[in-house]
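Dissemination and training. As part of the outreach component of the grant, students in the summer workshop were shown how a complex can be specified as a set of sequence lines and then modelled as a single object. The example used during the hands-on session is reproduced here so that future cohorts can follow it. Participants entered these lines:
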Amino acid sequence: MSNLKRVYTFGDKKAEGNASMKNLLGGKGANLAEMNLIGVPVPAGFTITTEVCTEYNQKGKDAVVELMKAEVEVGIATTEKTMNAKFGAKGEEFPLLVSVRSGARASMPGMMNTVLNLGMNDETVKVIAEKSGNEKFAYDSYRRFIQMYGDVVMGVEAENGEHCPFEQVLDKVKKDNNYSTDTEMTVEDLKAVVEDFKAVVKAKAGEDFPTNPWDQLWGSVCAVFDSWNTERAILYRRMEQIPDEWGTAVNVQAMVYGNMGDNSGTGVAFSRDAATGEDQFNGEYLINAQGEDVVSGVRTPLEITKIGSLRWAERNGTSEEVRVKDFASLEESMPTIYNELNNVQQKLEDHYSDMQDMEFTIQDGKLWMLQTRNGKRTGAAMVKMAVDMLKQGLIDEKTAILRQEPNKLDELLHPVFEASAIANAKVLSKGLPASPGAATGIIVFSADDAEIEAEKGEKVILVRRETSPEDLKGMYAAAGILTERGGMTSHAAVVARGMGKCCISSAAGITVSNTSLTINGIAFKKGDYISLDGSTGVVYEGKVATITPTLDGDFGKMMDLAEKNTKMYVRTNADSPSDAKTAREFGAKGIGLCRTEHMFFEGERIWAIREMILAENLEGRKNALAKLLPIQREDFTGILEAMDGFGVTIRLLDPPLHEFTPNDTTSQAEMAAKLGISIEVVKAKVDSLHEFNPMLGHRGCRLGNTYPEITEMQARAIIEATCDLKAKGLNPKPEIMVPLIGTVEEYLMQEEIIRRVAAEVQEEKGVKVDFMVGTMIEIPRAALTANEIAKHAEFFSFGTNDLTQMTFGYSRDDAGKFLPIYINKGILKNDPFQQLDQTGVGQLVEMATQKGRSVKPELKVGICGEHGGEPTSVEFCHRTGMDYVSCSPFRVPIARLAAAQAALR
Amino acid sequence: MSNLKRVYTFGDKKAEGNASMKNLLGGKGANLAEMNLIGVPVPAGFTITTEVCTEYNQKGKDAVVELMKAEVEVGIATTEKTMNAKFGAKGEEFPLLVSVRSGARASMPGMMNTVLNLGMNDETVKVIAEKSGNEKFAYDSYRRFIQMYGDVVMGVEAENGEHCPFEQVLDKVKKDNNYSTDTEMTVEDLKAVVEDFKAVVKAKAGEDFPTNPWDQLWGSVCAVFDSWNTERAILYRRMEQIPDEWGTAVNVQAMVYGNMGDNSGTGVAFSRDAATGEDQFNGEYLINAQGEDVVSGVRTPLEITKIGSLRWAERNGTSEEVRVKDFASLEESMPTIYNELNNVQQKLEDHYSDMQDMEFTIQDGKLWMLQTRNGKRTGAAMVKMAVDMLKQGLIDEKTAILRQEPNKLDELLHPVFEASAIANAKVLSKGLPASPGAATGIIVFSADDAEIEAEKGEKVILVRRETSPEDLKGMYAAAGILTERGGMTSHAAVVARGMGKCCISSAAGITVSNTSLTINGIAFKKGDYISLDGSTGVVYEGKVATITPTLDGDFGKMMDLAEKNTKMYVRTNADSPSDAKTAREFGAKGIGLCRTEHMFFEGERIWAIREMILAENLEGRKNALAKLLPIQREDFTGILEAMDGFGVTIRLLDPPLHEFTPNDTTSQAEMAAKLGISIEVVKAKVDSLHEFNPMLGHRGCRLGNTYPEITEMQARAIIEATCDLKAKGLNPKPEIMVPLIGTVEEYLMQEEIIRRVAAEVQEEKGVKVDFMVGTMIEIPRAALTANEIAKHAEFFSFGTNDLTQMTFGYSRDDAGKFLPIYINKGILKNDPFQQLDQTGVGQLVEMATQKGRSVKPELKVGICGEHGGEPTSVEFCHRTGMDYVSCSPFRVPIARLAAAQAALR
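and obtained this result:
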């Protein structure tokens, strides 16, 4: 390890690293190097590698500081030389101040700590004041540094619900002098603040604020490494599935100043529109500000381009006069800088062949690029950018497809508000369309409440003044986020887009506290409904109805690309003709799971099934089932017709019978009255049906094998519907699926019934139809004995929901008590109900597929668990050699794209 | 198929078959052939093979009669020649009458139908009357034939609860003539009965009674084949695990008559004592009777040997005078025949090297052997006979061991009555010690009630006048059987011994109806307690306390043989020092499963665990656990001491926490008062702990990983106990077992806690101890990823109870709703919770063992599910290469024997 190169320098269009070294230098570090190499102006500095982070976690602070010391000293020396400044300068030299930032392989916005203006002390501040001729700037930087360092490195924090102690000092100065903003403070005020801040540090941290820049540097570098293991960083990694062992690099870079006066500024820019995908350079900036001011949302930033500014004014009803005076774009206020920036963004996008998200600072009329990376984007933007870039010849088909994050398509597939509902809805406010999509829900004011209400099944809208990393779990739980403050690049906006959640920021006329929301004088409380349209920024009162999106335009083109490149096809899980139609429009080629029991719950049907349950003998059950027959036949007719020409897998009755009986006395009395029997009989039956572990109880084919008359009725309904449609000239293709097989004997008994009834019906109707009989593989024993089962079954469909439950021994209904803890503690990498566990459950799936095909090579194999719409699971299904995956209608496009990606990889 | 040999003849010391052809000829047919070959007198006849039964089930009656016709005709012709009689004789020839009996590979007592005296009609009866000079015998035989044939072949049965129609005819004749027994009927009566019987057949069956002997023969042969598929035959096969496809042979054999007068008789004999194993020829006989009279229990038979007769008289207080006059043994009444029989039994036992169960008939002073087979025996007799025969040089060690049915040892291991309890118990009656063992329970009078009460968890004593195959399911459910009538070879006695159930028959002074029991004038009703000692025949009033049997004498010798020949060793599942001691006495070498949670339910301990559950934070939980620590330490000290020198596998807390909290309001109020909190808090906690599928919920290592402090406490208690014992000079060997592992990460987190705490404790105590850490493999995923887990775990113990639940997806608590139906319908061959499913669950066990040993060849592997005491499962464990099996203390000897058998096979 001692021969490791731990530090990579960059600056003045030279660099030891490059863009391909992301794993070692982190995304930020690799791109800082790369930007130098392609001639973009970047302040000099160096990157300490991610390997050092791993060393740090293993060997501890002191050992690692010792190991990297010499190289860091070289890094500082190189930076000094390039920037013509001196770290810890005294007297003649211009002091070198540096920023210390984390930079992991994957972007973790707002997660990692940053220290700016490092190198400041009572000596250097004077030199800077003198050399810059701006004493206020110097002391303002100094006080910012003490606060940031005190917070990040020395752990000075708000205690017992008090305001942050640094903020208390500032509040007092402003109150004493009757200032409304920080910028009103005088040099003398700032000098006093610096002293007070140092006193705060001494009091809270129990030691003096370090004056030696080298001590400051080591403290900050180690704080970055430490921040890798904070609770919020760990939580973010869990959510984004970033391995703990990746570690973070540390970037130490010469400071440049956007706060040196009105000829300075800072901003964030995107080479294309991250929300819509439009090929339009855009971004936000602030004059006389440091980077944190833009992203924190404390000041509302201005548009970079004139077109962006004009659009902003239109949205806000701002007059051109006011716009030009108070809200001019960078294009208008600093045209030369703007042109340079525009050239840089174009160069970077061309170089990386992808949309760039850039940070820049203008110091006294000179542009410096501080960061570039592939920009996060909404699902719609992702699709549009790929289609556009393909058209523009920037990327090829394979890249266009592989660059999609299939899950992000979800945003394009979620309902949007109905036009008619919007027309009637009362508009409460309008804010920035920070993250698109529509959401309706109840108001909550804290992340905790968001979690609590969401767990109860409520859709919630998290309403905050502004969000911070502490709000992350609440944002995750919420359907939408509304903030009083912040721009398009505020924490709330960036994170919400990353999550694909609807978000509106800086909504007009709203005031948010920790317990209330007031919109233009109207008070809203926790639990009230509001609706957000994240694509327009409009906030509506109450609930607003939604409609289903369709597959066309760029989305349709992307789906065509997927279709062209896929091997597996995609079916849908659908229990109704309307679901079947929706899915077919999204490109589903058949139904992989039609759950017949859902049909039993509707309206009067429940009474027939209850009558069957209460029947004392076979005859009674048959009479009740006879009432269900025409209803089921009609259901199947509708679904088979909607999927005409494609296979429709119909699963026979699956849930335990007690799901059809009521547990409360009132409903039992109703049931007794309706069926003309005593309530005692109803109660006794309900009691007798009670199960300790219904998951593992009397359900699935166990019902069909103990009450064969149920299977007879269902088989009859399916084949009658098929015969009728065939007679009408259609091409119905039912695939009758026996659920919950554990032994081949269970399958054989059901198959015998189905084939016998099918023969009878075809004889009666005088029509010959095609149909298949197969089974669900959802019990471990079925997977283990798949070679026996495949001798008879014509198809397998993996029910990975139940297979996961039984393979792990987790009840999905109960696992909420320990699964989140398991994921937090790293016992599980992710929720196996969301992402197929390829090691365990997947082993059974592969085994069953191989065993099944070993006796029947043409065996049709698919998956109908919810994993069928989850991209990593879809890839697994592809590798396993499945014929298709099946998922809910709205996930069909996601699965299609994932299937194409799997085929291309 | 048409070249099949379907019929095998025997007679006059010649035979086409032999004893090795049991699969083809059935046990009875093969032995009839063999007896001829070794010179034993057997009436001539022939056997239709079991293959014909299979053909019959496939091709149907008419086709199969056609296929076997020619060979059967040859069989009849050969028999006619040997016996010098003519089938369907008219005039001069003596008519050949035959019996038609079933004979499967495995004995199925009372299961299959038999027809005697076949060949009788209005013609032959006259010839027989004339030739035999005994008209009454002729017509008595005729009327018996019509009744038997009418019942068995033509389906004439009692209807609507009426008495059997044939019995109604007999009752009327006896009533009209004031007879008390059948034998009082005159020839004229019998002739009238014959006519009436024929009328009954015509009326009930709708056709005439067949007069052609060939028609009678085909009808009977087919009825035997049909009887293979009667409900009671199927039930018996399920219980005894006899495959349906084995089929039955049919034996057609010349009739010989035990009812031709006082120089005739019939009986059943055993070459050794089937109850005790004593090497003493014994049996029972009746003068002037047919075979059915002995086994039906209608007449109480006499002893064959003088010693048996003397013992009988002593038991019954019968004077020698009365004994010699009315109850003389065959040895005394027919000494020549007795000597011949004694020689035959000796010859047969020597020939077969096993105890023989024989049927014989004496016709007019000539002995005929009708059947021989290896006799059923009690567990004690099984052990004693094998040990004796080994000593006598009849068999070798391997045979002695392999001849044991391990499950039968259960009888020797069940509690017997305490001597002191018997001394105080009121003796109600004394009967035949028909099947040994002790049973206490409530009285029931029907098989249905026996089942119903047993399902409720009651121990029941089935009390019947006499038993018939219809009572089988009730006998299966009962703890003991008491009958008013019947001898040692009655249906009740034979079946009870086969089942290993305690049975007393022919109890003195008792009268049984379908609803009442009167013993010497005292009336008992359903639900009253009585106690049976099947080894002495004594019936006691009320409940009688029992004691534990010990391992000595022949039993000890058999265990020594097992020990010498085994490869696997046997551990026990024990949660207390006393269980550990018992098991150690039975030869257990360690504990395979010590369930720590059982310790939490006792007395005050439950309050500490409840306090822990209700604690709101870590500190509260730790305080409560601190109270449990000394208690657990004491538990472990006791158990480790009792098993000193052997490994003790201690499983960490396994059940979900809600098992420790009360569900009813009263107990919740008590809990609230005791813990000083409000009942609402208790209720809320109980509600929050509720699970939909507790089997798959928050339990096992999921508890230890979410509340590490529980594992810490348990690890501390175990290691503290170990250190203390080590310090006292003992050799404790704890093996700490983590339950319910599904991922290696779960194991690692628990192992880290255990090893950390163990290091702390050893440091504190200044004692270094040996211990192991390993895991239970009971979740399918653990088996699938065993190679990962074995990198860390030192041992695997298969928890096949849970593994079966999850592999099949069966909740053991709920499967009662469909498992019995599945077994009845043949979907399952047997209950997978009793007998390990080698195909599915076993596949996971083998896979996990192989995967585990692939990374750690020395991995210790055992089983601690209840299958560990089930012989076929033990054999599987041996084949899989396990180091040990573990089972409940009373099954340890069974497992030891099964392990030795597995090693010998």
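The mean pLDDT of chain B is 91. Students were then asked to discuss how this feature might be tested experimentally.
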